[in-house]
Design brief:
2 domains; alpha/beta; Rossmann fold; single chain; five-stranded parallel β-sheet; 13 helices; about 280 residues; about 10% strand
Length: about 280
């Protein structure tokens, strides 16, 4: 059993929220595992059996899908594989203001690096990240779905996080209609915002030390989670606000993204000032 649609990205653009909202339709199935990332990894026979097993429970549904942001993050690798193995699959791509996307990704990465090095690494990190999240990822979506010359075609749907937040019902209806489902379905709006960056906890200095010393790390892994989870929370640091930009770095990022951003917004019917950059 293979999926007939996929949410392919972008990372930190609301894919987890979209995933939970789409799953509420009675004629739609999305595998329990978000981010299976099948086409961003090696395609051996054993993995195929595992991948297809994810969708067995949805065999009677009209829309059967998954969500893997790695497909656009590693688009040069994933695109030809999706085109070959899922040629008829519909693709959903949700995006947001690229500067805000970078901020959210940065906060997530902060959990995995030494806090003392944050300011030293920020310039390099943002420079590199701005290259990987360029709006020219559109080219990869198009190479997968082969849309018509003047539109995004019928096999892919581009969404904006700004619309999902401001017009959730209309945006989800658009998705259902795109997938050939009854669009007027009651969706619960009470789902807590998923995978948000502000409020994340990342290791404090003592916790980082415990993670680096292997004998201590092995001991903590043997302890019950009822003990280690509260302790880890007490030793961690909380991200209370979005990061601030060095003005020079921010302007550099805007300059790098400007042309792609404007082309993207124009193509999908958004005004030039839809995003600040």
């Amino acid at each position: 059993m293979k999926p007939n649609f996929s949410v392919i990205g972008a990372m930190k653009c609301g894919t987890t929220q979209l995933y939970h909202l789409l799953r509420q339709h009675s004629d739609l199935f999305m595998c329990d595992l978000k981010e299976p990332g099948m086409f961003a990894d090696s395609l051996d026979e054993q993995r195929w059996d595992w991948y297809e097993s994810l969708f067995v429970k949805g065999k009677d549904k009209t829309a059967i899908g998954e969500a893997s942001t790695a497909y656009t993050y590693n688009s040069s690798f994933s695109a030809p594989r999706i085109a070959k193995h899922l040629p008829d699959a519909k693709l959903i791509y949700i995006t947001r203001d690229p500067l805000m996307r970078m901020e959210s990704h940065w906060m997530q990465v902060c959990r995995n690096i030494n806090q003392r090095d944050v300011h030293l690494r920020r310039w390099y990190f943002i420079r590199e990240l701005s290259k990987t999240v360029s709006i020219s990822k559109l080219a990869s979506i198009r190479s997968i779905s082969v849309p018509t010359e003047n539109t995004s075609g019928t096999s892919d749907l581009v969404l904006f996080l700004k619309d999902l937040v401001a017009q959730q019902e209309a945006t989800i209806e658009k998705c259902f209609e795109f997938l050939g489902l009854e669009p007027k379905v009651q969706i619960h709006n009470s789902i807590e915002y998923q995978n948000k960056s502000v409020g994340l906890h990342f290791p404090g200095k003592l916790q980082q030390y415990l993670l680096r010393v292997k004998p201590l790390y092995r001991i903590t892994k043997k302890l019950p989670k009822t003990l280690t989870k509260p302790l880890a929370r007490r030793l961690s640091r909380k991200i209370d606000a979005r990061p601030t930009w060095d003005p020079e770095v921010r302007q550099w990022a805007i300059d790098q993204l400007a042309d792609d951003t404007q082309q993207f917004l124009e193509l999908y019917g958004k005004p030039p000032d839809w995003w600040p950059c």
